[in-house]
Specification:
300 residues, alpha+beta, six-stranded antiparallel β-sheet, two-stranded antiparallel ribbon, 9 helices, 43% helix, 15% strand
């Protein structure tokens, strides 16, 4: 395994996006803007790739505006967040509403995500049989560790939860399926980066540096250390770097599942597991869990 390079790379395009949990996770693209006195409408610009469906990308960009804690957004808010004109937003929300992707609240005069976005993501989860086969082993480790054990995959510059279980006396924090977590701060994200091919890893780090320069600079050394840890030990850790009161260890599967590399992680309260216990006790248990699941897949 090669160690991660420093975050001094130019952003690269053309990286493969992770599969969707819901239909809103397709990248909307970066549109060049001419230097003019008024703000241009991206809808009137052409993407350099003739195969790029700009209108589709704009519609997906609208769906991506909805975040946790903001269940309803107006056309004005959507216009401000996407950079698209109000007229373009109006056409997009009208079309999305007709397809069930958003619902209009006449009292608030705002839009909410529709149930169609959720139903579109269900086939992905249903087709990942590993969620069901791994759950008993995940439950056992969560009970033994007194924490939570989760399974995740990459979604562009983040990780997203596919499955999670919590032990009987585990931590209160329990992520929802479909929730995202940062790729550089989390043990799960670091494990994914560490196992990735150098070209893909460098491309993602370059995108992170462009989109989140401060975070990238802060966590670059930790990512490099994670790559070194993975090469030597087969796992990566996060000691309160994402959730300050949680220590976590993560192990990626060695073979793709449905075309994606999946990562298992185990998180425990920091007051319960010090740095030594994290690596001397939990890491070996998680490694054994992942290898047994891999073996189950070969014999199943």
């Amino acid at each position: 395994m090669t160690e991660c390079t420093a975050l001094n790379l130019k952003p690269r395009t053309g990286t493969r996006a992770g599969a969707m949990i819901v239909a809103v996770s397709t990248f909307a693209g970066t549109l060049s803007r001419p230097t003019v006195s008024r703000k241009p409408d991206p809808a009137r610009q052409r993407h350099p790739d003739p195969n790029f469906a700009t209108t589709l990308a704009h519609g997906l960009a609208v769906l991506e505006c909805f975040k946790v804690g903001e269940s309803a957004l107006s056309n004005k808010q959507l216009s401000e967040r996407t950079g698209l004109s109000k007229a373009t937003i109006s056409r997009l929300t009208y079309t999305l509403a007709a397809r069930g992707m958003v619902n209009f609240d006449p009292q608030l005069r705002r839009y909410r995500l529709g149930s169609t976005t959720l139903s579109l993501g269900y086939p992905l989860l249903a087709n990942l049989a590993i969620r069901q086969t791994a759950r008993p082993r995940m439950r056992q480790l969560a009970d033994d560790a007194g924490g939570s054990v989760s399974l995740g995959m990459r979604d562009r510059m983040s990780m997203v939860y596919l499955e999670t279980v919590r032990g009987h006396h585990g931590i209160a924090f329990r992520p929802d399926i479909g929730a995202s977590l940062p790729i550089m701060q989390s043990a799960m994200g670091r494990a994914w980066l560490a196992q990735a091919a150098p070209a893909l890893r460098d491309a993602i780090l370059g995108d992170l540096r462009q989109s989140f320069p401060q975070e990238s600079e802060r966590w670059s050394e930790a990512v490099e250390q994670a790559c070194s840890d993975f090469a030597q030990k087969g796992y990566c850790v996060s000691r309160g770097d994402w959730q300050t009161d949680v220590y976590a260890v993560a192990v990626p599967m060695r073979v793709p599942v449905e075309g994606e590399i999946l990562v298992f992680n185990c998180g425990v309260p920091a007051i319960r597991a010090g740095a030594r216990q994290l690596e001397s006790v939990l890491a070996p248990k998680l490694l054994r869990l992942v290898r047994r699941i891999e073996a189950d897949g070969k014999t199943g």
